[in-house]
Structure formats: structure tokens, C-alpha cells
Design brief:
alpha+beta, 138 residues, Dna Ligase, domain 1
């Protein structure tokens, strides 16, 4: 009996990766991915999508986030190697939008906390809550 190779690509796996890549910077749930494929008439089941998402996470091609107030995990395409990727996020308390934060100042704060207070911030779970520009203008 032959074993399945550790690393393999399937049409469905490539389709999930393409969906995430087309939404660079966005956070999507597995349900949104399922709905996308259903609306396109593609036969990609929920279990297959979860399996492919976990594979993409292991391969460093996707990241999984859990945000307060959102019951489902969110997934995001990873463009850069882990060491270069931005981890911080902004979450609007009005509209629920989640935005990646690209700001060197936050890196300095994280470094300061570590060096001065001997506390290692988990960058991958750091979310700043507030109100986005669109909601403030509305």
C-alpha cells in the first residue's frame, strides 16, 4: 500500500489558494470560501476547504486569525515570508472591518515592551480596536 506524498497539490487546493491570493490583505472565513465556490458552481466541499486551508497554513501560504466578536476563524493569504509579514491588525468596532496595519512604529513599541518590560508580545494576535475612517465620516 503506497502512502500519500507529504506535499501534493490538487485542483481544489490551488483554487482555494487562488481565492485567498485574489483577496490579498483581506480576511475571509471558510463559509465565505464555500459560498464563493457554490456561487461559481464549483464542487468544492466544506471539508475539502478546511483541509486545504490547514495545508496552506502549514506551508506558510495562509494565516489563520481569531478576532473578538467573530465566531468563525478568518484566513488570510501570506505574500511574504513569515519574518517579513505584517501581523498587526485594526478592527473597527462600528462596521466590524478588519484591516492590516503596516506601521514601523508598532514594531518599535513591541520591541520596547520586550526590552523594557521583559514581555514578549504575540504579534500574530495583536489587534487594535477603534473606529475606521469611513465610519467616523458617516
Amino acid at each position: 500500500m503506497s502512502r500519500r506524498p507529504e506535499k501534493y497539490n490538487t485542483k481544489q487546493g490551488e483554487a482555494v489558494l487562488a481565492y485567498l491570493a485574489a483577496r490579498r490583505g483581506a480576511h475571509v472565513t471558510a463559509t465565505q470560501i464555500v459560498e464563493h465556490f457554490q456561487s461559481d458552481g464549483e464542487a468544492v466541499g466544506r471539508t475539502t476547504i478546511y483541509r486545504q486551508l490547514e495545508r496552506l497554513i502549514r506551508e506558510g501560504k495562509a494565516r489563520k486569525h481569531a478576532f473578538e466578536g467573530i465566531s468563525s476563524a478568518c484566513y488570510q493569504f501570506v505574500e511574504k515570508p513569515q519574518s517579513e509579514q505584517d501581523f498587526y491588525h485594526l478592527k473597527c468596532e462600528s462596521c466590524g472591518g478588519i484591516f492590516p496595519l503596516h506601521c514601523d512604529a508598532v514594531d518599535h513599541v513591541s520591541k520596547h515592551i520586550y526590552e523594557t518590560h521583559a514581555f514578549q508580545v504575540n504579534d500574530s494576535k495583536t489587534v487594535f480596536y477603534g473606529t475606521c475612517e469611513l465610519c467616523r465620516q458617516g
